[in-house]
Amino acid sequence: MLLRHCLLALRGTRTAFSLQTATNLPACLAGSSLVATQRFYSSVPAIGIVNYDVVKKLAREPQKLLIDVRESDELTKTGQIPSSINIPLGIVSQELSASPELFQSKYGREKPQASTEIIFHCMIGKRSLKAAEAAAALGFKNLKNYEGSWTDWAKREGLPK
Fold this sequence. Notes:
The structure is a single chain. This protein is α/β, with parallel strands linked by helices. It has seven helices and seven strands. The termini are far apart. InterPro entries: Rhodanese-like_dom, Rhodanese-like_dom_sf. This is Rhodanese domain-containing protein. It holds the Pfam family Rhodanese. It comes from Drosophila madeirensis (Fruit fly).
């Protein structure tokens, strides 16, 4: 049971480390027979961060995909960044797992490949990070988060937030 909790905690880490001896264990484990020499690595790719300048150029870079993960009613109130497609956070995994034909018919864009640069955004950057993590779990490798998201875009473009 304890090992299971440790492995779950390790899943979220992005750096490698090793358990080498039982001498530096917490007091609750001091009497246990746990001694391991094993390295754990996260298989989740690092998620990059992009800024306004990168997103502004995306209209001229159709090989990259900008996904707005806000709900459709939010887009109705605020508008959206040009060249972005809307896939709400709750269905990102489902849509990125869809067949290429279905994706194309819904979004008017080719379904991204594992190596396609995908940039996610939302209102402030939190949901978009979750979407990028979900895409990483599906095997996508070139993922970015527009940390300022719509709030930053609207401010720089002189639009209402």
